[in-house]
Design goal:
- The protein is of the alpha/beta class.
- It has helices at about 10-20, 35-45, 60-70, 105-125, 155-180, 210-225, and strands at about 1-5, 25-30, 50-55, 80, 135-140, 180-185, 235.
- The relative contact order is 0.15.
């Protein structure tokens, strides 16, 4: 299952899983009312192997409806990747200085990037049995690492991803008892050529900007090999650990 699957890495994660003959079905969520042309094309190609579900990760009613839907999925979900997130939108840009921070924008970033993934996990977990093996991975970002923060700036995005990492770590600790076979991780996909990063690619070093298809492939390659012993880690796209 991919949360936030209508564009960028999320869309490529859906495509990559559909190419795997061993994957019987993929659930792809999208915000209500967004353009679904590319997902609709995939649905026509793959039929019942792809199920599209509306989900607004910031709306309680939408999350509650999603939780009810998940409980109808016999056996639970083997792999869930939370790819929904924002760096910028109509009235939000990454801050270069604390003087550019305002409460409304900061709340929005935390709502989508931090609280949203946790609420999705809260909707997902009751659909699984204690003995089932499954993975929940949330796309984080290197800039969310406190230990790696040497440049400053990007206050809201950095802090919202740091909060996401803390939620993932805390959830993984709780689930070691409740879901001992679960793998719950945060993962950094690398700087990827998507709408999210496009306005800020000028300073990316040569060879360090990756296609969405490449990033999706690497994410899946890391996640296919992790087990419960890796639960609670913050992983890089190559499987190495990133400092919190």
């Amino acid at each position: 299952m991919v949360i936030g699957a209508n564009r960028g890495i999320g869309l490529e994660l859906v495509k990559a899983q559909l190419r795997e003959v061993g994957v019987s079905r993929v659930i792809a969520t999208h915000r209500p009312g967004v353009e679904l042309q590319k997902l609709d094309i995939l649905t026509r190609l793959h039929g019942e192997r792809l199920s599209l579900r509306p989900l607004d990760v910031t709306e309680d009613a939408s999350l509650e409806a999603f939780a009810r839907y998940l409980k109808t999925q016999e056996g639970g979900i083997d792999l869930t990747i939370h790819a929904a997130g924002i760096l910028h939108e109509e009235n939000i840009d990454p801050e270069k200085s604390f003087a550019q921070c305002n409460a409304r924008n900061l709340k929005r970033l935390f709502e989508v990037n931090s609280v949203g993934p946790l609420m999705v996990a809260a909707a997902l977990l009751p659909a699984h049995s204690r003995k089932r093996r499954f993975t929940f991975a949330a796309l984080s970002a290197m800039v969310g690492s406190i230990g790696d923060n040497r440049l400053g700036g990007w206050y809201g995005y950095r802090a919202s991803k740091t909060a996401l990492n803390q939620f993932v770590k805390t959830l993984a600790n709780e689930c070691r008892v409740k879901y001992p076979r679960a793998s719950i991780v945060a993962i950094h996909p690398g700087t990827t050529d998507t709408d999210l990063s496009r306005p800020f690619q000028r300073n990316v070093k040569p060879g360090k900007l990756y296609s969405a298809e490449q990033s999706a492939s690497r994410i899946l390659n890391v996640l296919k090999d992790i087990g419960s012993e890796e639960s609670g880690q913050f992983l890089n796209w190559d499987g190495s650990q990133i400092p919190w």
